[in-house]
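for the writeup, i need someone to sanity check this before i put it in the appendix. the sequnce is what the collaborator sent (i think, or maybe the updated version? ugh). structure was predicted straight from it, no edits. if anything looks off just tell me and ill rerun, i have time this weekend
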Amino acid sequence: MQTIWHWKLPMALILMIAFCILSTISAVQGFEVGAAMMDITGPVAQVNTMGYAHAKLSGLHIRLFCRAFAFRDSAGNSAAYAVLDLAMVSHLLSFTVGKRLSEATGGRFSETNVMLSATHTHAGPGGFNQDLFVALNTPGFDRAYFNYIVDGVVQSILAADRARTPARVLSNSGHLYNASVNRHPHQYLLNPAAERARYPTNVDTEMHLLRFDDAQTGAPLGSIAWFPVHGTSLKVSNRYVSGDNKGIASQLMERHFNGGRDWPPAGGARGTFVAAFPQSHSGDVSPNVRGVFRVPDADGAAGEGDEVEEVRCNSSVFKTFDCESKGPGKDQYKSAMIIGRMQFQTAMKLHQSATTELPKSLTLSVVHDTRDVSEERFPAVLDLLNSVNNSASYRKDLRACKAAIGYAFCAGTADGKALFSYFTSGTQRASVLVDAIRDLLAKVTPEDAECQGSKRICLNVGKIFWSGIPFMSSQIPTQLLRIGPIFILALPTEVTTMAGRRLMESLRRTEGFPNEGKVLINGLSNGYYFYVTTEEEYNGSYYEAGATLFGPHTLNFYAWHASRMLRSILTTKRQKNSGNFQPKRTPSDLDKSNRLDGISGGGGGDGQGINGLDFAGFGKNFGQQLLNLRNSYEQGDTVELKFVACNPRHSFGISNHSFLLVQRYNTRLHRWETVRNDASLDT
């Protein structure tokens, strides 16, 4: 016998249950975002900066962080985006982070759908790059610091993923003027006059912001603000680790949304507001808006605070050994604060005025590819930009070269002087001695010279090997991430202003590109392979041209490759990590990364530093005070403290570590409370 149970529920309860079910379904089907950050500061002493060839670090200005965002759409597609306060992201770093995340998430995150980019600060430590030409600057590869960065990035992305919540995504754009200049305006003028006439300035002044809010509470979760400007407010003379102007912009915005609170010491991921300021096409864009002046002192420092007569250098041809660019402030630290604050203020205006909400059913798609650029043959797709009806003929069998640097690279820029006074920016002046040394390391063949075109080769870095590893690989990672109508093109390079404009226009012209779509160049992502200029700029004799490693057709390679990735995303049906465009090969050079431990430089590769064990000195103890302090100080007084300390280099692997705490005694609770730490902008 079958028993039938009859339930009589109040209609109000039935409606409530139905509403809860529908709300749950809606939340699952919506777009989710999480944000978090972790410390990646690393050693603050006995290490060279990554970005300047001969600047050593011996202290801390502000800490470096990885700021991460995790995304998931209603179809279950996941992606992560992270901005690191570093000069660049190495290919080995993105490869290792992807591998670690794949192991931790069962393949849900991997190198394919994780985009890593850098703020391009020139005041951070080096030692994390697998390409020897870059690593020798540090000097060498620091395995301990590399692992510390990897841990910080992995943990920040996992924390962001755990913090995911249904979110509203809003988009906004606006202009920021007087925060950037083209550092090589004569190079920009080499581009066609008709093309230049389409743009009001020789730098892009547009900032684009994505804003993420909790869909249920409306609470702000974070934002990403793309704006092209170099992280070179702090000069070669700076000796302190810092995130430079973009690191400052992030901290100002985070402090605003987090109730004035500063970030915790190293090791603390946070679930509150995260503000990232990544780079865009900033290859020829400087924050030093006052111009280029003759250096007044012998060691090449800018003469901070000195009352000296300012003599402008020739902006066309000059020795960077004698000249240096200057920012808007009285000294380099004030300049970094001014440019950082300008980015923060513009981002705040865009955040507050953002009204364009992206659809809740956002499409999340990503394509990632690695291939040897020197083995590719490709059409000159950019030839079509100036044609009518896309019917003009164009070159169809271009090729790129093995990596080589030109004499113009050795001259440096006014943002960072050359190592030697011989080299001159704006000329192709060569040297018989340099050529002889170059050919001893790797001879330049007629084929090499023909491939590189007008660039006079100073060093054939793609043909120099150490322990089976090339000084500069030609295996290039590229990636395209789609978040609804936003297409983020990740390139492992610094893209000049006009080169970036051509790339974006080329992609916008792709068949099927949405009318409301927007292309964003995300430079210095997933690897570092120096610069990309237009062909016209390449034929000049400036730093960016000399640093375009793979020859005059490098930009056309990236444009062709990006268009293929874009067509893959546009034509592939929505699916997990969509795109039928699969990686051509695994980067073989990265499999040899263990050989890099043999070239460890200042850090010894073990975090111990070149001085080994710490020693307090005879008759002294660690922590011993060497300078007497007064019992009390008035507001505005300078407090000077001197004590016996360990080598600060040895501390970067310690969780929740801080070099400095400023505490206030709470008389009501009878305890000391931390109000500032070494991550604070005002310490």
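The chain has two domains: 32-296+313-371+473-593, 624-677. Residues 32-296+313-371+473-593 form one domain.
thx in advance!!
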